[in-house]
Amino acid sequence: MRPGLICVCLFFVAALMLPTASARAQSDSATFEALLIWGTNDTKTDSKLKPADPKLAEKLKKTPFKWDRYFEMHRENVKLKLNEEQTVKMSRNCVISVTNLKDDQIKFQLFGKGTLANTVTQALPRGQVLITGGDAENSTAWFVVLRRVE
Amino acid sequence: MNEEQQLKLQAFLDGELPEKDAREVASWLARDSDATQLHAELRNTRQALKGFEPQLKVPESREFYWSKIKREIERSTPAPVPERVSLFTSLRRFLLPLGAVAVLTLAGIVTLHQFGGSVVHPVQVNAILADAGAFTYRDEAQGVTVVWLSYPAEKKLADSPSRATLPAK
Amino acid sequence: MAELAYSSAEDAALVRAAQKGDTDAFEELVARHRDKIYARAFSMMRNEEEAIDLSQEAWVKGWQRLAQFQGDSSFATWITRIVINLCLDELRKQKRRRTESIEGMDEESGGVERQMPVVMTNPTERLERGELRQRIERALSQLSHEHRTVLVLHEFEEMEYKEIAKAMECSIGTVMSRLFYARRKLASLLADLKNENS
What we know:
The structure holds 3 protein chains of 3 kinds. Chain B is mainly alpha-helical. Chain B is built from 6 helices and 3 strands, in the order H-H-H-H-H-H-E-E-E. Chain B has a two-stranded antiparallel sheet with strand order 2-3. In chain B, strand 2 (about 135-140) and strand 3 (about 145-150) form a beta hairpin. Chain B is elongated. Chain C is built from 11 helices and no strands. Chains A and B meet through helix 1, strand 3, strand 6, strand 7 and strand 8 of A and helix 6, strand 1 and strand 3 of B. Strand 7 of chain A pairs antiparallel with strand 1 of chain B, so a sheet runs across the interface.
């Protein structure tokens, strides 16, 4: 009985996938969320600072970084059609460029004070996170977090 | 002897001078006794330090020292994701011929999708880093790719909140 | 049996095993190199507790970054660089908390070292190795953090000026000035210590 039930479920899943896939094929645009995050271990910070999303903060804490506290400094949503590129200013000195490529791939570039610091091309499906970071003053750190939201 | 000359003398001792400058300093040393004396002092100090680094031992037992490291490693290691493994194991265990046909049908539909829609590829990171000291870190369990740039804080690629001027909304 | 195999294995083999998640192999690496890493941390921090904490933090970071170790340098050199960077971070934090004396800053940049008389005697002559080591230890402890750090990185880690400048986040000129001052100060301290005893 049990294997038979699994088979029935598999057919239903297959049936459900068809319209979803075709809808997705028709719309190649995607929305990305870019966040500028500040990391610190300082326990005395400005109370007006917005803590980073707890799930994101947990991901950051699980990476080999030494910071315990993360704050969201800036957020941008970027909607891109397939092969479209957009530049977004994240802070006074930091500009990012995001290109929406096929097969869930993206090209991400980070410019610091107008100079290209890095280029990353990788798959970034929903659920994956791309983080670029570096040292900031007073033993703190900055991060630009990119993820696909739609 | 001015400061620049003294530092040049030191750089000569340390082998940090280009060949032309090193030859000039060598010839200067041959005719200037003050320079020779200073060079000798710097050389003696360097020799005194060579091989005389303080020999210290960790003032804790091997086991105790390791126990704290191990605890921190375990605390910081991400937990494995069990759901995917158990689902795969369940499918494998309970798949009968009829179930196999269902999977083949599903596979056929997925293959059709490849021509019309997008497929999630395994994450392959291609990073071109202008910063030679940067590194890339990938955590499959968390679905996180980190690119860490080694520019010093003074380079101010992004601002800390105390002086941040964030883009206007 | 496994314990014996670990203790006789080369570092490269232990690293490979550790990269696959073998914590016992990593523990063997820790046991082999912990004194050197602790000594490096102590030479920079001059505080036992801080040196223990930072050396352990270096080992944890080393474990987390093992995948990035490609074997371009020896494992000992690689882990030493990690502890050096951690110590430099900590020193920077402490410097911000510490009040630097104006005299201290003048000493670093005001050219006091240019006026010190040249020390004519060679400290390696007429001193037993053990005694010289103790004197160097005492003299090093009398240097400021910045001067001691640049001396440690140049003399013990054999780093070039530009590498030290990058690690300490300062200019090559500053490295050269600090190294010059540190050497001259050390020479005069070693000579003074000799005079104290004789």
